[in-house]
Write a structure and sequence with these properties.
This protein is of the alpha+beta class and 490 residues long. It is built from twelve helices and 25 strands. Helix content is 30%, strand content 28%. It is elongated. Pfam families: M20_dimer, Peptidase_M20.
């Protein structure tokens, strides 16, 4: 763990972030970080609770003179997205994140950094630990599994919290104050098929799409970033139509909330088409490079001719493949609709996140988002239709609601006033296309006044994730002032 990170200001925040990043904390495997947080709360002599799903709540009384202020809930999620470069040797289940400082940013070596939402968690820990920071009564809520289903927020029961105001510290632009977000639903298409023997006279190729930036499938979906699964299908579609290519395996993408950066396919073609196939594929790759040169300048596709012993022995039948590549082409990826009510806000989108094909089975995983519940399922049904036409079974799961903006929020007025005084300009009050937990928490706490903000983080959900040091300092000053300005109880 880099000592240079621990030396950054504010030291109390960065040291807590370094402590947190030493603990493996993948979504759905949060046992160690839950224990870490339970031990932290108890070590401070504070009331520390673990609810039935694994969320941790730590309660701290108000500092002297702040007893008459409203109780606040400070909330962040414990889990992080685990992504790494293919050439990075790293075990997320056993290793802590290897951080370093470069050009004013904190980064990780070849992996995600965990600033999403580790900076928020570390902020709350620093405030809980401090004997010098003035604040009202605090209920610190550390949720689990935000990144792969928001099951922590969904499982939090009503009555666990008494706070009237919730500060969600999971926003990634330091000039934004969020008052709403998109909901989401997981769409999974699956099918089985009977493999057939590879024809005589075939040669095998391994096709690797790589070098894409990837990113957050909500916050980055509007940027036109390359999706490795769609690019791979574009290549396979052309080669199937022109050269009779047949697919043996595809493995593309990983997590639903990450725009896929890489995809690998093993295929066969007739040896008579060998040279023409490579020439044609190279031409298409050059076209895609020209399309993506601004947003994905490092994009590339590698074609490896396989030795005879490596050439696949079984492949997907041509008719099944015909429907598969066309369904993949039809399935929407990217922005589906922009909001007519908020400038520059994506209303609905889809990320074709993961494709796994081989040995007679196919699974395609998507994450559909929308700030409007009806359009969320409109997009989901368009995907369902595309995949059912090829014979897939399609399942919707993990649906969660969006967070409806409250323009009359009392805490919003407080934050806007503080921001203007500290920065000298108005913040951007926005709704975002990411999935914040506020909407879900609001189902059991409908009267809680909620707001979300945070420091500038770039490349979340990808190995280029980084946190801006100056922005963290700006955010920390903002947060501390907010604590002193919480309204009085009525």
């Amino acid at each position: 763990m880099s000592q240079e990170v621990r030396g950054l200001e504010p030291k109390n925040l960065w040291n807590k972030f370094a402590d947190l990043n030493a603990v493996p904390r993948p979504s759905k495997k949060e046992e160690r970080v839950i224990e870490f947080m339970m031990n932290f709360g108890k070590s401070l002599g504070l009331e520390t609770i673990k609810d039935e799903v694994g969320n941790v709540i730590i309660k701290k009384p108000a500092t002297k003179g702040m007893e008459n202020r409203k109780t606040i809930v400070m909330q962040s999620h414990l889990d992080m997205v685990h992504q790494k470069n293919n050439d990075t040797v790293f075990d997320f289940d056993t290793q802590g994140i290897d951080m370093y400082v470069e050009d004013g940013w904190v980064r990780a070596r070849g992996t995600t950094l965990g600033a999403d939402n580790g900076i928020g968690v570390a902020s709350i820990m620093a405030i809980l630990e401090s004997n010098e920071i003035p604040h009202p009564a605090i209920e610190a809520l550390f949720t689990i599994d935000e990144e792969t289903g928001m099951t922590g927020a969904k499982g939090l029961q009503g009555g666990m919290l008494e706070g009237e105001i919730l500060l969600n510290l999971d926003t990634e632009e330091d000039d934004e104050i969020d008052i709403g977000c998109a909901g989401g639903v997981d769409v999974t298409a699956s099918a089985e098929y009977d493999e057939e023997d590879t024809p005589e006279g075939s040669v095998g190729y391994r096709i690797t799409v790589k070098g894409l930036n990837g990113g957050h499938s909500g916050m980055d979906i509007h940027k036109g970033l390359g999706n490795a699964n769609k690019i791979m299908n574009r290549l396979l579609f052309d080669a199937f139509d022109n050269f009779g290519l047949q697919i043996a395996k595809i493995k593309g993408g990983s997590l639903r909330n990450a725009i896929p950066r890489e995809s690998v396919a093993e295929v066969i073609i007739a040896s008579t088409f060998d040279e023409a196939f490579v020439f044609d594929m190279t031409s298409i790759v050059d076209e895609i490079k020209a399309e993506l040169h601004t947003v994905d300048p490092n994009f590339e596709v590698v074609f490896e001719k396989l030795e005879a012993a490596e050439t696949p022995k079984k492949v997907m039948p041509s008719m099944a493949q015909y429907f598969f590549v066309r369904s993949m082409y039809t399935a929407h990826n990217g922005v589906f609709r922009m909001s007519p009510d908020f400038d520059d806000l994506v209303e609905a989108s889809n990320n074709i996140a993961k494709v796994d094909l081989g040995e007679g089975k196919l699974v395609v995983k998507c994450l559909t988002r929308s700030s409007v519940e009806s359009s969320k399922f409109d997009v989901a049904n368009s995907l369902r239709s595309a995949f059912e036409l090829m014979g897939c079974e399609v399942e919707f799961s993990g649906s969660y609601p969006g967070w409806t903006p409250n323009s009359e929020s009392e805490i919003l007025d407080v934050l806007v006033d503080i921001y203007e005084k500290q920065i000298g300009e108005k913040p951007n009050v926005v709704a975002c296309h990411a999935g914040l937990e506020c909407g879900i928490l609001g189902t059991n706490y409908p009267d809680m006044d909620m707001i979300s903000f945070g420091p500038t983080i770039r490349g979340a959900h990808s190995p280029v994730e980084r946190a801006n040091i100056a922005s963290v300092q700006k955010y920390w000053k903002f947060l501390l002032e907010i604590l002193t300005q919480i309204p009085e109880k009525k």
